[in-house]
Amino acid sequence: MTSAFSSPPYPASAPASAPRLAVVEVTRHRPDLPEYHAKVQVLIGNAVTAGERGGWQVTRVAAADLTTPELLTATDACDAILIMGGEDIAPRFYGGYTGYGGETRHYETADAGQIALVRRALDRGTPLLGICRGLQIINVALGGTIVQHIEDGIHRNVGVPIDRILSEHPVRLIAGSTLRGSLRATRISVQSAHHQCVGRLGEGLSPAGVAPDGLVEAIEHASAPITGVQWHPEAPDSPAEQLPLLLAALQTQLAPARVAEQLAA
User: Fold this and answer.
1) How far apart are CA 174 and CA 91, in angstroms?
2) Does the active-site annotation cover 87?
3) pLDDT at 257 over 90
């Protein structure tokens, strides 16, 4: 089996007591899509770097390269989970159909493993952030559905090289949402590149951000520290503070559990 780990468990400067973050991508291998894969690797690399700079011990894991039990074991000791973007979720996981517009390759092993990660995070109260596909994984894991193809508009650039697919647009953060407090703003500028979006919301989820066309761009759970954003805060052209603020929010959310753990030690 190909190794799913591509980075050391934590940078040399991170103390052993630093919180542990699992950065979970779809796959490390897309030989048939070299340009797309290179773009994805830049985004994931940026997320890993932001995590390390934010004081996390980072473990990078590829969900398609592991069975669901192996993925759960590989991330069992992590204090927080970051599920990254990637290909469409297989329609069977949310009652959809194949043959829709813009359909990509499906990695069902990754889908099943990441869905299991979300459900375990809910059970344990583990802080979890989903980016793009990661938001959709959260929604599907909690019983929601996906709009399989949206009209071309503000959410991605069409007919351009993959390196220019990200589109800039505003998002209004919902009053009273945790996300609005985490990002310290009421409106933000985002970089997105999606052709699918949230349909029916999963159990316990509510919108936390909305695009000008009314599409839900962020979700959060009512009682668990689970958040999803449909855009890419890790993109090179995203506002520099977005991803650090989101990762800092994860640390704030895990604080009570870590204090209890340290008192018990």
Assistant:
1) 29
2) no
3) no
